[in-house]
Write a structure and sequence with these properties.
The protein is an alpha/beta fold. It contains 12 helices and 21 strands. Helix 2 packs parallel to helix 9 and helix 8 packs parallel to helix 9. The chain is globular and about 70 Å long. The structure holds pyridoxal-5'-phosphate.
Length: about 425
């Protein structure tokens, strides 16, 4: 459930009409619902209420400072994958002891930064990485709490670009080598083993791959404890999918996920960390765009809108589906038209949807892309010299621009022409 509903024929974000925001900030823009973000954190807290736990929001899914502050103030932790994201979490007031650092390529500078904030945990992914962290921590005279990301070799059955738990991808250490790796880490200065980490992919719509992975993690926990390691935390990653296509998808609910976690690893008595991104921010945001032209093609009609692949890349990058709905609700019973919905960029890939049935639209009508709060604004670029689009946050009847649209002057001012040209 989210908070984007029609009221008297107009799509609202909570109590604010989308038409009102559009009139003030112009299109295209992203808008997020505070109530939906909070609700989603609450669902995970409820699902894991049986254990000591920390929900670490995957910052990469939506890194706006206002979003991070809202979630951090609810007690959420943050899963960061770069020094930039770490700085964002800190700037949003999240204390270091709720920040987890993931990712395959942490630089020494990023490690230093994270250690200076005494972060909760590093999730380590390779031998050179843990050697580097040992050296950096020793030099600083501090101890880094670490978990090793194990690759359980399970097929997450999701899009290949977001599957991370198979043995042939770049993530983690093969689970069969884990005992050897933990022994090496335990012998290194500056590192303290606290747990095990696993993350098998994103947009999973079935619990089975998680269950298989978590069973392997449970076995590994027992084995590592036998080897003398203190395993007190399990970081079970993110990846739970959301219903992008309302009419078809029914991914598992957080409560069912939490039950499965209890069934697989509950008996170990570990503190549970999870790193959901999409499930928290995805359905908490929409992207709003307006129709520039309706172009009558030979085979079909095109809806040319003012948002493009640079603003929301998921359809062209992952062939992702987004529900696209009119902001002014269609009159019931009106005969639908079939459209290809495209942006203005000079690439055939700048296509959001093909053969969508919608009530007939005309120039300047507004449309909303549902489920655009995760991997939307964060993946945007200025391709075709289109300034990044603004982000707006709604809470009840208030709204605020939480990232302004840059002016063309600001965009151009970032380039410099050297004197010698
Ligand atoms: C991307 C990522 C997540 C979040 O994935 P979602 O599908 O958005 O829940 C969590 N942990 C790690 C390590 C990631 O790379």
């Amino acid at each position: 459930m989210d908070h984007f509903l029609y009221r008297e024929g107009v799509l609202h974000a909570e109590d604010v009409a989308i038409t009102e925001i559009a009139a003030q900030v112009g299109t295209p823009f992203y808008v997020y619902s505070a109530a939906t973000l909070k609700r989603h954190i609450g669902l995970f807290n409820e699902a894991l209420a049986w254990a000591d736990h920390l929900v670490c929001f995957a910052v990469k899914s939506n890194s706006n400072l206002a979003v991070l502050k809202l979630l951090g103030d609810m007690g959420a932790g943050m899963d960061v994958v770069s020094g930039g994201e770490l700085r964002r979490a800190v700037a949003a007031g999240v204390p270091g002891d709720r920040i987890v650092f993931s990712g395959v390529g942490k630089t020494r500078e990023e490690m230093q930064l994270a250690l200076s904030h005494d972060i909760r945990q590093f999730n380590l992914e390779s031998e050179p990485e843990y050697r580097a962290l040992s050296a950096v921590a020793s030099e600083m005279g501090v101890t880094a709490r670490v978990a090793v990301r194990v690759n359980p070799d399970v097929d997450a059955k999701t899009h290949e670009k977001i599957s991370t738990g198979k043995s042939d991808n770049k993530f983690g250490i093969p689970i069969d080598r884990a005992r050897e790796v933990y022994a090496e880490i335990a012998a290194l200065p500056g590192l303290k083993v606290v747990g095990i980490d696993v993350h098998i992919g994103s947009q999973l719509t079935d619990l089975e791959p998680f269950r298989l992975a978590y069973q392997k993690v449970a076995e590994l926990t027992e084995a590592l404890r036998e080897d003398g390691h203190e395993i007190t935390r399990l970081d079970l990653g993110g990846g739970l999918g959301i219903p992008y296509e309302r009419s078809n998808d029914a991914p598992p609910l957080p409560i069912e996920y939490g039950q499965m976690v209890q069934d697989t690893v509950g008996y170990l008595g570990c503190e549970i960390e999870i790193e959901p991104g999409r499930l928290i921010s995805g359905n908490a945001g929409i992207m709003v765009s307006s129709v520039i032209y309706v172009k009558q093609g030979e085979a079909r009609d095109f809806l040319i809108i003012d948002a493009a692949m640079n603003d929301l890349v998921r359809p062209s990058m992952y062939a992702a589906y987004h529900d696209i709905i009119p902001v002014n609700e269609a009159t019931p019973g009106v005969e639908q038209a079939e459209y290809d919905i495209v942006g203005p960029i000079c690439e055939t890939g700048d296509t959001f949807a093909k053969s969508r049935n919608l009530a007939p639209l005309k120039d300047d009508d507004l449309v909303a892309f549902r489920s655009a709060g995760a991997y939307g604004a964060v993946m945007a670029s200025e391709y075709n010299s289109r300034p990044l689009i603004p982000e707006v946050l709604v809470s009840g009847d208030q709204f605020a621009v939480i990232r302004a649209r840059p002016t063309y002057e600001e965009m151009l001012a970032r380039d410099t022409i050297p004197e010698w040209i």
